[in-house]
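ok trying again, last paste got cut off:
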Amino acid sequence: IIDLIIIEKRSGKKEIENSVDKEVYNYWIEKKNEFFNKYNLPDDIKEFLEKGKFIKYEKMTEFSRSGDQVYNIDDKYILKISTKKERLIYEKNIYNKLDGYSYFPKTLFFSICKEYTYYLRTNIKGKPLCSNEYLKNPELVVNLLCEAINILHSIKINEKKNNQSDVFVHGDCCLPNILIDDNKVVGFIDMNDAGY
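nice, full thing came through this time. structure:
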């Protein structure tokens, strides 16, 4: 289920005033403000998103089992909003340790407030390996899954403790959490069970 809201981008006030669809524009501005206020977004996240003049947000629930509210913003950012702060703290810490690898998103903002924890990170453009276009080709799926596992096993984190393996483990390496673009593995998501 995807709830898509598109806000038309406008370059300036004069254009809006002269526009025939001023009412439509105002409607979408109102929807954007509702989005900001619904979860009482922290000011730093609101300011960051306002600077980027985001025009679209999409609630992502198709593959999510965590119960988090997950939003794709302009296909550039992912905003997770959760009542389970420990899980998001762990996920953020894992992504921060993987900062040197292009396969993982970068943390932009992380904020713990009274009711919710907010995690804004970059988005990796790609489709989940469980998308129909890939599932129609089982041989390709197997090859991409092997590529994904090889990538994960090549990751080195310099915090090895006593009796730990030197192999990085995703923790939930399944088709929805492997992102593909142009028939290549481009990223991994949902790292809250990752470790080494």
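cool. Residues 1-18 have pLDDT under 50 and may be disordered. The radius of gyration is 19 Å.
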